[in-house]
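pinging the channel bc i need a second pair of eyes. not urgent but kinda urgent?? the chain im working w is below, pasted from the shared doc
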Amino acid sequence: MNKVILLGRLTKDCNTKYTQTGKCVTTFTLAVNRPTTKDGEQQADFVPVVLWGKVAETVGNYVHKGQRLLVEGRLQVRTFEANDGSKRWVTEVIGSHIEFIEKKEDFGGPGGNEYTGAPFDEEIPF
């Protein structure tokens, strides 16, 4: 089984593009905290994430630098040949499900109807 669940913050705004066939792809880096070390120092891993399709469009339109996201997906390792002829390895998460952890107004952005996810601390209206 290949399943990854990450909770972290975007290090910068998402990069959203469309392929020649019109499919949306969004990439970003998620800063995920590691457990605190013995001396109390906090460290983080910076994980590249790739989204495709409708979820890529939604995230590309509504998520910005500093916002917390929960990403569910799979780990992918691929190789390519660099310009100098050397073989390079890329490890990334291919996201399939995203949860918005914060509303825009929670991290200083404009609020309103643009928020489409439900944070974990909000009551369900039924």
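so The first strand starts at residue 4 and ends at 10. and Residues 109-126 have pLDDT under 50 and may be disordered. — does that match what u expected or am i reading it wrong
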